[in-house]
Specification:
348 residues; four-stranded parallel sheet; 12 helices; single chain; Rossmann fold; 2 domains; globular; signal; alpha/beta; metal ion binding
């Protein structure tokens, strides 16, 4: 499994974020002289606060109308890595009955708020749940039910765990357990909803298995290393040059050599599909998308954030369907007839 990281917070942004957290801590303290304010929403339902709309959608699939869900980031264009939390965000997290977030460095503002607020509300951290699958025998579980700000992370893992369907199913089960503790009389409702959600995920896994059976080893290129876990489970071979990936992750301009290598791969029709993330588009990724299309290589979209008006299951189903359709409708990239590439432009 390839371990990927997106760009980290710049020092200037970190300073601003720290100042924001100090202000947030003052707001929280003012609410209750350092004590956690009364939890629950105005509706009387438990409130689940999620770092992003992705995990908010998973929580909503389990809790349904029995809970209120608030996502701190619900803008598909936002970057959780560099998001600067506000005092209002801190109050939401501190008032939450349950906090669901990604972890692994993807949404660090949540852990910062938890550390500053000192709340004792239960948390579900997806990255730590994913790490539990990789524990050695006899090693204690890494994903506790409550906030432990100094606990170590599985830093070697891929942070984009919402693209790993089994992990998402485990997160749904953990959410159901936590909601049951909050509302024991609705245990059956939560467990049934989690089971139905997991059934949807298993159907998606079956489609990935079908892709693997029909297209195992076929090559893909991705403009951003977001869907690696899904690509791997589909049995595909990501041939995006590693230096290019590292540059994208760090927010730097890729070296000329890695761009040239990428161009050679596309012009040689090596990838069967190019996977484009429009949420992180740049002149370079737009050039790559255009060049692939002019070479007759299908380009599909896979995003890092949940699009508006989509549930998690709908989002994943559409992306997997697009991937399967693109692969089924095209021969393997290396055997594709070469076309005229004189029209393509040089990279920016």
């Amino acid at each position: 499994m390839r371990a990927h990281r997106h760009r980290r917070l710049h020092r200037g942004r970190t300073a601003v974020a720290t100042a924001g957290l100090l202000a947030a801590a003052l707001v929280v303290t003012a609410c209750g002289i350092g004590e956690r304010p009364e939890s629950g929403s105005a509706t009387g339902k438990p409130t689940v606060v999620a770092s992003t709309s992705v995990w908010g959608s998973v929580a909503r699939a389990v809790g349904g109308d029995s809970i209120d869900v608030e996502a701190i980031i619900d803008n598909a264009e936002a970057d959780p890595h560099s998001y600067e939390s506000t005092p209002r965000d801190a109050v939401k997290v501190d008032n939450a009955d349950l906090v669901v977030f990604n972890g692994g460095g993807f949404d660090p503002f949540i852990r910062q708020i938890l550390s500053a607020g000192g709340g004792d509300q239960p948390v579900v951290e997806a990255f730590r749940i994913a790490g539990e699958h990789e524990r050695h025998p006899g090693e204690p579980p890494s994903g506790g039910d409550h906030h432990h700000p100094d606990h170590g992370h599985h830093s070697a893992g891929n942070e984009h765990v919402w693209y790993d369907l089994p992990t998402v199913g485990d997160v749904a089960d953990r959410i159901a357990d936590e909601l049951t503790r909050l509302q024991p009389d609705k245990r059956h409702v939560f467990l049934q909803a989690a089971a139905e959600f997991n059934t949807e995920l298993r159907h998606l896994e079956e489609r990935l298995a079908r892709i693997a059976a029909n297209h195992r080893g076929e090559k893909v290129i991705a403009t951003a290393p977001v869907a690696d876990l899904l690509i791997e489970r589909a049995g595909l071979n990501d041939i995006t040059p590693r230096p290019f990936v590292q540059a994208v992750e760090s927010g730097n301009a890729p070296a000329a050599a890695s761009i040239a290598r990428l161009q050679d791969l596309v012009d040689a029709r090596q990838p069967s599909v190019v996977i484009h993330n429009p949420q992180t588009a740049s002149p370079l990724t737009e050039w790559l998308r255009t060049r692939a299309q002019r070479n007759g290589i299908p380009v599909i979209t896979m995003t890092g954030m949940l699009p508006a008006n989509r549930t998690y299951s709908e989002w994943m189903r559409a992306q997997i369907s697009d991937l399967e359709t693109a692969l089924d409708s095209n021969p393997r990239g290396g055997s594709r007839r070469r076309a005229d590439t004189d029209r393509t432009t040089d990279p920016p």
